[in-house]
Amino acid sequence: MRTRRRLFIITVIGAILVLAGCATGRSDDPGGPGSVRIDHALGSAQVGANPVRVVTLGAADTQIATALGAQVVGAVRNPSSPDGNWPGVRPALSPAVTVLDSVRPDVTSIAALHPDLILATTAQSGYHDVYDRLSRIAPTIAYFDAPLRDPGEKLVDQIGRALGRSEQAAVLRERSDRAIDEFTRRHAASRAQRVAFGQFSAGTTYLMADPESQGARFFSRLGLRIPSAIADMRDAGGAGAALDMVTASQEELGVLGSADVGLISVFGGAPRQFTDIVTVSSTSLARSGRLHVIPVDLAAVLLQPNPATTDYALSGLRPYLTGS
């Protein structure tokens, strides 16, 4: 997890208002034809009909907006990808799209893009801190229930409404459902398997432990479930609790043996830094070859799935599951 940082930008109020007033295509009339009101945790946004210049400040914002055919003019980029694109973004963003930092807000650069709509439903906390300033530039939509915990289906529906593309959003959800149904049919042998999913970073292991988290619900739709031994670790809390994960000490990693398949990403280091830990390598999961080190981007999609990334997630999972 990145350390939370706040960016202080020296900007006079008058300059902010001038930039905000330059936003083109924004509906200043809440009752304008075709406009829609989107209520969210930080306020409400009155979005003009069919916004044509969209800024996306989170991974899912970019994935969903792109899948729905929005014209993205500025987006935060994936720091772990050579081209900056987030996993599952199709088509890939053009190099002409303005690159924004995924953690540190640059309000002036965002204003200069003259957006009609700013999507921040999955933005990092620094963007929530400057929500008031962003909302002066263009209608801005933040998270709905809790940061980084909104169901992907809800994000698709609400972003679809904001873009004036509800029909396309419904099609996207239906396509995702069909893909999941087909995957479970083809991989029936994997049903009822217990999955240990998590990340190893800077010497710390984070394991998904909440059966009600978005990632766990996605696994559940595939017939996979979190082992009770890992779910029982939730009471311990830990640094990963914000994303429905818990930290596991090296002494506790024997819990991986309670799973039928292990899917662990290793961030910022060699896979052996994790797999060579004695309490990991000695588990039946590791000895049987069912402990897999998966790509970081695949782990990110599985942690926060949404219908726009379903195909990417299923394609990535296929090699690791029985019957593939």
TrEMBL record:
Pfam families: Peripla_BP_2 (PF01497). Keywords: Signal, Transport. GO terms for cellular component: outer membrane-bounded periplasmic space. It is found in: Cell envelope. SUPFAM superfamilies: Helical backbone' metal receptor. The keyword Transport applies. GO terms for biological process: iron coordination entity transport. Residues 53-324 form the Fe/B12 periplasmic-binding domain. Belongs to the bacterial solute-binding protein 8 family. This is Putative ABC transporter substrate-binding protein. It comes from Gordonia soli NBRC 108243.
